[in-house]
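Q: Give me the 3D complex with S-adenosylmethionine.
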Amino acid sequence: MLSYGCSTGEEVLTLRKYFNDANIIGAEINKNSLQICRNLKVDNKIRFIDSNEKDIRKCGKYDLIFCMAVLQRTPDTITRQGVKSLKKIYPFEKFENQVIELDSYLKKGGLIVIHFSQYSFMDVNISSKYKALGNYNQDDYASAIFDRNSNLIEKPISRNSIFIKLED
Ligand SMILES: C[S@@+](CC[C@H](N)C(=O)[O-])C[C@H]1O[C@@H](n2cnc3c(N)ncnc32)[C@H](O)[C@@H]1O
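A: Here is the predicted complex, encoded as structure tokens.
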């Protein structure tokens, strides 16, 4: 499984408690955080890698991808300042490309968990290959959310967070 944006490794350590025999890859873009991960004492089925497409792909494909609190930009500030458009800060297209990239790492039949994001996975075209699983949602996300045009969604909507990939 892939923990995309694993920060200083806590997410990976938590995943190990739930999945005691899984190969877990933690990918992190921040070099300092990655170094902290690499100093953790972990078993030999956990690896921490730099978040670049080549290295992530080399360790895949994955049965499960966790992408938690990664697909967002300074959510507290954006919310506090009442920003109405994310176009200049984090356009929808950037989110869409990241989701398409994650989709390319995931096996058919695999699960993707997107939690705490400023956009909705269901707004990306490739989501038609997926089905929301269970009633898991992002209703606990307290920050502002945005639509496909990067415009603020004034009235909060419920967004699923766990999806199963039905086709490649
Ligand atoms: C708020 S932390 C969330 C950490 C962890 N996923 C959690 O939920 O506790 C977001 C992390 O994602 C990392 N990040 C942002 N963009 C990334 C990318 N493209 N690839 C990998 N990591 C990324 C940041 O450096 C940061 O460590």
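A quick observation: The helical segments are 10-18, 31-38, 53-59, 75-80, 92-105.
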